[in-house]
User: Fold this.
Amino acid sequence: MVDALKLKIKTLAFGTQTIECHIDESFFDGFEQAEVRHADVAVTMDVTRKSENTFHLEIACTGTLTIPCDRCLEDLDLPVEESYRLNVEQMGTELDDTNDELLIVPSDWRELDTAPLVRDTVLLAIPMTHCHESEDDCNPDMLDMLNSHSVEAVPDDDEDHQSETTGTDPRWEALRKLKEQ
Assistant:
């Protein structure tokens, strides 16, 4: 864990402080949904203490992540350029993180670990599907193996369920006729 991301909020000076650190793939260890093979990300966090119990965080993450390509499983380098803003207020006795723009932490907390905020900010740079831009960039052996197992490559032995004229299952044709009536 990066100690620079643990803010000593009780002793933080008023005004703005800038915290800079670097994170690598070990930062994502133990986070089960992260497929990060390599990371080289610079983190800059501006922390502004506005009052005794109010803080404003601006987190900027820039660098690259290496994750597996969904198509060929080879390394895929993704650029990271994400930022996140959050207000933090110290009050009450319970943590409340239900609002995306305001984090309420108990007033007796002396330290705020911002590592989960940074981790989520970086992981948001990963698209839902992550593939090389072109199949030419993918591993050709893996693409050949995928193509050999694709539906188009598998011969259709089940001729009983296929209509020769339409290439569709005759049961669907019967349903279409019912729908048209």
Notes: The chain has a mean pLDDT of 84. The radius of gyration is 26 Å. The longest helix spans residues 170-180.
